[in-house]
Fold this protein.
Amino acid sequence: MTEVRRRLQIFLLIFIGITVLGTIGFMHFESLTFTDAFYFNIVTMSTVGYGDIYPTVPASRLLSILLIVLGGGSFLGVVANGTELILLKREARNRMRKINMVLGIFFSETGYQLLNIFARCDMEIENIRGHLVVTTQWTEAHFISARRQLKKHNFNLDFDDLLELKDLRDFLTSQRRSLISLLENPAIIEDETFSETLLSVFHLTDELNSREAFDDLPDSDIRHLTMDMSRAYRFILEEWLYYLQHLKVHYPYIFSLAIRKNPFDSHASPVINP
């Protein structure tokens, strides 16, 4: 889409430049007013033929030839690239709608539970909790600010209770079929970020399943597992913010439930109290 937008800008600049050149040229060679010269220029570039006004001197005829060749081509370039850009934007909106539907399934089935687990083990959660309590008053600026805070956050997880590792492994194993079904969705292929998120979750699942027990693991291996969990935690949290931002704009009723299930808001509850 960026390349199409760049081509459109180039063709538009060429078209405007030729229009200005042609109008000034006809004003000079044919002694026309600005309005008549501009009309003469557009008629020439559109190749609709002459009627009431036509070139009378060799210089304006040569200018007309130049305008027909360059002006017509640049105008077609503007129309073609403008149309392509509109179609690409529509396709991008449809693609994002599909991706966010898949994200909704992921968070309902797996994502919120993982965020709850990771948030409980985040040693520095209080540094970002205030930036993650999403409300109905949030604007695009709030989401941007929250993502900036995430980039500064040290995702430092600590699993003191090794039973939590076993519970995490059991939960991820139980969700394996659901996660695999998400990978089968063609929309995932078009979203590199979410693909990376799923990959980090699958990798974490494989790492946990590769250990028969957790009570005798060396500290070095615990640190390795913690790094895998921190990676998945960061990816999921970033996707969660993008997902909520999309819901707020397009699906306010789903957004309402999502913020009432916010794992970072200690007062959040799906029950609506008076």
About this structure: Residues 95-260 form one domain. The radius of gyration is 30 Å. The longest helix spans residues 58-121.
